[in-house]
Amino acid sequence: MFVMKRFLTAMLTIAALALIAEGVADAQVQPMNQPLPSPSFNVPPPPPPPPPKIEVPAIPKMDAPPKQPRVNVNPRGSFSDRVTNCLHDGAAAGLGPSERSEYSRACANR
Predict the structure, then answer these.
(1) Within 10 Å of residue 86's Cβ, how many Cβ atoms?
(2) How far apart are CA 88 and CA 103, in angstroms?
(3) How confident is the model at residue 50 (pLDDT cuts 50, 70, 90)?
(4) Where do the structural domains in the chain lie, given as residue ranges?
(5) In whole angstroms, how far apart are CA 25 and each of 19, 20, 28, 29, 96?
(6) pLDDT in tens, 64-84
(7) Rounded to two decimals, what is the model's pTM?
């Protein structure tokens, strides 16, 4: 009797495993009603986009001096140059010596 129970238990276990394995195997089978794609229906993939443009940055030279920021230089000349120009302008305008000195002081400080 003990052998019979053991045999029956083994058969039920094998049957249960067979049912489980059959369900898993059915999920792996592909349907038969779908035709295989033919090579004439295969469309080539679109061309890949162009690669990004890589620009090499300017590399500073080791022996070149560093670039200094440009300072806006006032186009006015030095004070003595302005006084000289004002004295010449006053003389060209026909001013006398005392008038030229007063004119050159006012003109150079503008």
Answers:
(1) 20
(2) 11
(3) very high
(4) 77-110
(5) 10, 9, 5, 7, 121
(6) 787 788 877 777 788 999 999
(7) 0.35
CA dist., res. 71 & res. 16, Å (int): 92
85 token code pair: 């120009």
* Angstrom distance (rounded) from CA 15 to CA 8: 11
Are the CB atoms for 104 and 87 separated by under 8 Å?
A: yes
- 3-state secondary structure string across the chain: CHHHHHHHHHHHHHHHHHHHHHHHHHHHCCCCCCCCCCHHHCCCCCCCCCCCCCCCCCCCCCCCCCCCCCCCCCCCCCHHHHHHHHHHHHHHCCCCHHHHHHHHHHHHCC
User: How far is Cα 22 from Cα 5, in angstroms, rounded to an integer?
Assistant: 26
Cα-flanking dihedrals φ and ψ of residue 44, to 5°?
Answer: -65, 150
